[in-house]
Amino acid sequence: MKNFIKKVIGLELEEKILNIGVLAGMLGILFPWIGGEWLGGETVHYAGFQFYTGYIGIALFFLFGSVLLVTILPLAGSSSFIKKKNKDTFRMLVTSLATILTIASLSVLTKTTREFVRMDLRFGVYITLIGGLVASLYSFLRYQEQKKKEVKDLFHYQEDYEFKNADNQENLNANTLKMSTPKAPEPEQHTIFASASKK
Fold it and tell me: What is the CATH architecture assignment of 14-159?
């Protein structure tokens, strides 16, 4: 448990903010989204997974939960259900979808408050909306960083490849030059003149 907490603390700032936004979105679903006096004068409060937006609230809870699992599972030593290279893309798409669904729910609830004057929007829907927006923003930033890193790695690989090719070409040219250069003839020994001079 201590090791898990250390890993969570060691996360990058953007990762922490992203997951805090996801947690806020999940908690907001558990709090009241709409409340007031219903027909007959009864005071009611409905959370995100209740009332007209019940199915959307349940869907939001699972969407936010899947994003949170992408972070928690590797920290806990388990294998994630998403490949590492697809993690940022997955989180950006899911958090964007969750934000769109939250806005759709907000519009439905706003219409309901107009029809039933004594019903009002509650803080839960706003917590979920803010959490979704924060998670979407930082998911997008992480996605952008991943793309920049991929492009940088691609150019770095090409530079290494060109450098190796140039080095191999230089070695090949040196070997070819060495093979094509004729050896200098050895000096001739004039034995006849040498023996005559000795006499």
Answer: Up-down Bundle (1.20)
Q: What is the 3-state secondary structure (H, E, C) of the chain?
A: CHHHHHHHHCCCHHHHHHHHHHHHHHHHHHCEEEEEECCCCCEEEEECCCHHHHHHHHHHHHHHHHHHHHHHHHHCCCCCCCCHHHHHHHHHHHHHHHHHHHHHHHHHHHHHHHHCCCEEECHHHHHHHHHHHHHHHHHHHHHHHHHHHHHHHHHHHHHHHHHHHHHHHHHHHHHHHHHHCCCCCCCCCCHHHHHHHHC
Interval 136-165: pLDDT, tens: 999 999 999 888 887 777 766 555 555 566
Nearest Cα to Cα of residue 21 among 100, 130, 157 = 130
The closest alpha carbon to 76, from 17, 3, 125, belongs to 3
Q: Does the pTM exceed 0.70? A: yes
